[in-house]
Amino acid sequence: MSQGIENKVVVITGASSGLGEATARHLAERGASVVLGARRGDRIAKLAEELAAKGYRTKAVQTDVMDQLQVKTLVDTAVNAFGRIDVMLNNAGLMPLAPLERLKVDEWDRMIDVNIKGVLYGIAAALPHMKAQKSGHIINVSSVYGHVVDPGATVYCATKFAVRALSEGLRKEVKPYNIRTTIISPGAVSTELLEHISEKDVQAGTKEFVSKIAISADTFARTVAFAVNEPDDVDINEILFRPTAQPV
Q1: Least buried of 124, 171, 181, 206, by fewest C-beta within 10 Å?
Q2: What is the pLDDT of residues 55-90, one digit of tens each?
Q3: Is residue 177 annotated as a catalytic residue, yes or no?
């Protein structure tokens, strides 16, 4: 039976900032090999160089999670470089909040493509390798908004509810292969996520609220580490955390 973080190979989408970047740093410091995927290739290349300079094992692959082939290439690169994939962290996400009546249909489409299909593409890329290994851990990022629905966040909430449904179905299907699954649902965390909000009044109001209570992305990184660190006969299926001050 194995446990711990050291020497595990971890693939992270959305690794160029926020939750993904913090998790990459945290797990690398604890001995994991981290493979970074994000659209902003310059950012993950810089992060990979920084981690490598400290002696950590890392690779960066420019990846748009809306492109299934790119996600497959990200995972295959990890396996080719390090021989396996132990953890797939499907972290990339968008949150352009707006009331439905504003008909931000393009934003709805993009949220569905990134927040739902991007997770599915990550599962599709990792699952064949994990089945062959008879081991692995798929971590999908939902949200407090995957548990409650607020006006102005309806489509985002729908995508994050979907992530929880996909993850629970996955959990039940992968039992024969000794694969673990975890849903992590953060509350208000200080990241660049609010920059995706195109409606300036909504963005201003959300930023004002979040600035008063938000907690560090390191909190998310520690949560990932907790789930990954457990021995392989322990399946931490769902973690929901918020700032202590967050009422929603």
Answers
A1: 124
A2: 999 999 999 999 999 999 999 999 999 999 999 999
A3: no
> Which tokens is 4 given?
């711990």
User: pTM of the entire structure?
Assistant: 0.97
**Rg (alpha carbons) of the chain, rounded to whole number:** 17
Helices in the chain by DSSP H: which ranges? 18-29, 41-53, 68-82, 105-111, 118-133, 154-173, 200-213, 217-229
pLDDT tens string 208-233:
999 999 999 999 999 999 999 999 99
> Which of 14, 223, 238, 22 lies closest to 118, judged by CA?
14
DSSP states along 143-178: -GGGT---TT-HHHHHHHHHHHHHHHHHHHHSGGGT
Q: Which one of 56, 121, 145, 156 is the catalytic residue? A: 156
